[in-house]
UniProtKB/TrEMBL annotation, chains A, B:
Keywords: Calcium, Hydrolase, Magnesium, Metal-binding, Phenylalanine catabolism, Tyrosine catabolism. GO terms for molecular function: fumarylacetoacetase activity; metal ion binding. Substrate binds at residues 143, 157, 255, 259, 360. This is Fumarylacetoacetase. Residues 140-404 form the Fumarylacetoacetase-like C-terminal domain. Its EC number is 3.7.1.2. GO terms for biological process: homogentisate catabolic process; L-phenylalanine catabolic process; L-tyrosine catabolic process. Belongs to the FAH family. InterPro entries: Fumarylacetoacetase, Fumarylacetoacetase-like_C, Fumarylacetoacetase_C_sf, Fumarylacetoacetase_N, Fumarylacetoacetase_N_sf. It catalyses: 4-fumarylacetoacetate + H2O = acetoacetate + fumarate + H(+). Pathway: Amino-acid degradation; L-phenylalanine degradation; acetoacetate and fumarate from L-phenylalanine: step 6/6. Ca(2+) binds at residues 141, 214, 216, 248.
Amino acid sequence: MAREAIVDVEGESDFSLENLPYGVFRLRSDARAQIGVAIGAYVLKLAACAEGGLFDECHAEVFSAAAARRVFGQPTLNAFMELGRPAWTEARRAIQTALDKHGSGFALLREAFASGEANRFLCRAEDVVMLLPVHIGDYTDFYASLQHASNLGAMMRGPGNELMPNWRHLPVAYHGRASSIVVSGTDVRRPRGQLRPDEADEPVYAPSRLLDLELEVGVLIARDSKRGEPVPIGQARDYLFGLVLVNDWSARDVQKWEYQPLGPFNAKNFATTLSPWVVTLEALEPHRVAAPAQQPPVLSYLDEGEQRSTLDIALRVLLNDTVVSRTNFRYLYWTLEQMVVHHTSTGCNLRCGDLLASGTISGPEPSSYGSLIELCWRGTRDIVLDDGSTRKFLLDGDAVSLRGRAGARGRYVGFGRCDGRILPATEEGVAAAAAAAAAAGSKS
Amino acid sequence: MAREAIVDVEGESDFSLENLPYGVFRLRSDARAQIGVAIGAYVLKLAACAEGGLFDECHAEVFSAAAARRVFGQPTLNAFMELGRPAWTEARRAIQTALDKHGSGFALLREAFASGEANRFLCRAEDVVMLLPVHIGDYTDFYASLQHASNLGAMMRGPGNELMPNWRHLPVAYHGRASSIVVSGTDVRRPRGQLRPDEADEPVYAPSRLLDLELEVGVLIARDSKRGEPVPIGQARDYLFGLVLVNDWSARDVQKWEYQPLGPFNAKNFATTLSPWVVTLEALEPHRVAAPAQQPPVLSYLDEGEQRSTLDIALRVLLNDTVVSRTNFRYLYWTLEQMVVHHTSTGCNLRCGDLLASGTISGPEPSSYGSLIELCWRGTRDIVLDDGSTRKFLLDGDAVSLRGRAGARGRYVGFGRCDGRILPATEEGVAAAAAAAAAAGSKS
């Protein structure tokens, strides 16, 4: 039976006592960034809790009270992540005990509740603004869904030729853009870009007409690896701190024109949206399930043997409140551990805070595809919304929300929301083009 | 006539009084990172100079003494770069006056010289260890040389089909890896990677046999741009602080197997080497020359009109002290300004410290190609070194040095060295594979 938390947690909440995701927030009334843990409709303020003694009973060799004050006093999670799994486990145990209604941990919180002063340690989620949870050095985007790669390949190269020869041998990936990663709730401006309409011989610089979403899950890397030293498969899990939802917005018309031969660039570098709460691998551990079998067998450096497994996380895409896709993290062909190993296989070093995203997650059914280009099958089918309107790609004003959770009612381990709304392409774009034309002199 | 510096500067030195590049160093005896300026075989210590009053006579509204103490007291150039061109110009003027033998600036330095205490402000280059000059948020690599793109295209797709349809319409680029950027002098371990030998049906994980160099020039971005707001072509030059040499090491066999459809990843992310001294655009300004004409004309957002120009910088590649390539920055088809504009064209934001590299710079003659794969024409020709040995790709122990400079004897504006030596692939790679095989159980 689910344990009961010290605050009311609705059965449908993503943030049960089993979850306890970490995030960075500021109070609406305060510019200061703080680390928090989500519990129901509340946020536990970890800096105040550390100062108040929440971690005083932890094993000091593993996670000392001084370390807790230091790492939870930061404006990002990086310092906490660097401490490693024993510290994370100890911190989680202490926080879970403190928030357990029938537990005995952190007397100060119980006293604060009794005297009506709980706001010293807790605030309401509606009173905070969420920020990016970590400093991200590098962002890498994989292409780890067999169905997604097959769908895109079928569209580009026709049936029978869906997958490139390398796809089943290595987790294909490319480097993404870190500067334009934004937190859920940030509006996304429809990009202008260079593209060549199907009916045209020459390219134009114009607003993208084929603006898409991509449903992905990202993992935040906990620690630095050494340059020149590949991470062995048996050690890869030590590098995984927690997961976030990722919307890798994509301008398909820009992508189609630009991507040969070096891959997508401007089609994706204008914005990438993250969910703000980092769901830890520890919270997800009870939801570990078998991963898809790999055929042909992978090379030994990627071979997980008996350790191979994945996580059962139900995922949804909402477009203006209509669920347009239901899929699952477990469909991914390549695991997070294999991504870490392959990323470092030539000696590339990972750093604490790096983001590795899965690539679009598509399941076997058309209703489980994780992007609009698949759901509308390259514009040949309508996506029907609850209000009766139809879509192929995103229109100005459209609101996209990604959701994901493991577990069952009352004990959900979920991500909250990963939201973004499309703003129309700006007049500034027009102005910039005009300014450029003017600067180019009288010839235009 | 060249001005004379307060210290002896050899005629062949890259670091004349006309240059004054910025870098970050530490004394061999001291772990602290400091900002310096190279002059001949010496390094001017800018934090000490700022404290000593070198910038006291600057226009305070443009570059105050307090600002100088703040930005030159940092361990990277980012804070100085963010101040913008008027401050850079003022700082350069003050430093040049102080170092001018017949000038009157910075009396304290002259007094220190007279009393034999110049080491308060100057140290010998041989007594310092150079560090990365900036904190690099994102690294982008372009593909801006027409000859290089044509050469690679001819090898991959055959003559007559060298260039992709997009190539003359936009500066093709991909996102690189920031974590593995290292400073000149750092050894580079030959990567193991997944590759499929030409004679094989199945891929292997093995040391790269086709390890290559790429001669590139990179620009460091001085300021943040706003997400969602493309930089107009007329403003692009304001984002350029200075240039460095870049060696974009490439494992061609890994690249060939992995790069479809998302571009190079592990083939390049194991190491990228930068020269340590940042040569400012201001120092290079006298060497501005016409850029190659672009045909067909570019779209208006990329059209530089009368402002279009580039820089005359002679470049060389040395392999074990043999010059194997002589080329020039001016051969690039796309300018740095066009790279900035196209990078931000969909709204991607640049940040101060970002590195934009040119891609391999190849000139029209075979002797001016900037990579070994071009110089050996995909393994069909030998590259002959001065010791009589031949190369196609890099061997263990090979030392690569990139050089570049503008100007003439006594007034060179040069980069110094961009060096790296190839270490053999480690036994650790073998050990990791063995560990993975062991972890995978008895089946292997």
